[in-house]
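Title: Request for sanity check on CDP-glycerol glycerophosphotransferase family protein prediction

Description:
We are preparing a figure and want to confirm that the structure record we downloaded matches what your pipeline produces today. Could someone re-run it with the sequence below and paste the raw structure tokens into this thread? We only need the token string, no images.
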Amino acid sequence: MSAIKNKYRKYSIKFKRKIVQFLSWLFSKCLNRDDNMIYFESFLGRQYSDNPRAIYEYINKEYPEYKCYWGMDSRFFSKFDDLGLNTVPKISIKGLYIIAKSKYWVTNSRVPLWVTKPSDTIYLQTWHGTPLKKLAIDMDDENIPDRWNRPIPYKEAFSLESDRWDYMISPNKYSTEIFKRCFNFNNAMLETGYPRNDYLTTSNNQEHIDEIKQKLGLPLDKKIILYAPTWRDYKHYELELDLQRMQEEIGDDYYIIFRLHYLVLTTNDISEDNSFIKNVSSYNEISELYLISDLLITDYSSVFFDYAILKRPMIFYCYDLEEYKNDLRGFYFDFEKDAPGPIVQTEDELIKAIKNSDEQKVSKGFGDQFTSLEDGYATKRVVERMLNKKNQ
């Protein structure tokens, strides 16, 4: 019976996709683009966040004549409530209409290939991080969850997708070189810094930090640890921490906020909060979490490149370092040598590193290489280029 259900589900998904593909093609051929319409999407329509959010808010303020729409995954509808946005379910008649009508697309992940891109649409790919581990065409394996039901191989899909990007944002020279190769990208690279990071430069003050802490219900009298592990290709995520022991060791001085990678948001069953740790995986804007945290704990996630802008301590909790490094994606640089903080592999080492974290500093060389463009004006540079407003 389960085999029959799986077969039915497979054909149902395929049939629905064909309908969406046809409607998208039809709208793209029958509709004229609206030069003042922009379609935004962040993390597959799951969030109002990241580079697309920064670009949207800048355009909304500086160029209010533009009509902006946000595509959303219907499963995450509640996250868009009360934001005052023009939202559309991205896989719907209205969503496909808006996508086809918009002169500009702005996204930090990808628009599916079965959504037709009109030839006169300008597609800005912002991406969502400085690459640490191998991406796309550079990956040795194509280990992507079957539930995505991809109709073509992962690497081939990425090459076809990147051909549709008119612009791509890069936060630094290091990323530019990698993006061009791993995405097989041959169009205009905007090496501007990341729009989302303007906020870390312009809003880094104690009053604002306390406002965010109060909004999240976090203690003002304890240091905040942001724990942000990456998505592991090879297994569902499990929290590799003994929370009771951690609380006994550091709970008097620290409070942990925990954020999962966006690709596992739908599989996580960790409780929202308790007296020592709060799950903030559904919180829209990770930049605000950077700003309120005194210490970052991560592993192979590229979040540390952005966090380095704040020049605060970082710890790399890599309990599966050898397995991850040797068997999966690999790394673009010598992670063990160049990580801007201590790498620990056991809980004992982690606790010790937390207690000694006040002594850590991000090296000037690391900052010069990866964060030198983050001056608070990246969004302005990107928007002027995309909308051709440079000389206006």
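Thanks, this matches our download. The radius of gyration is 21 Å.
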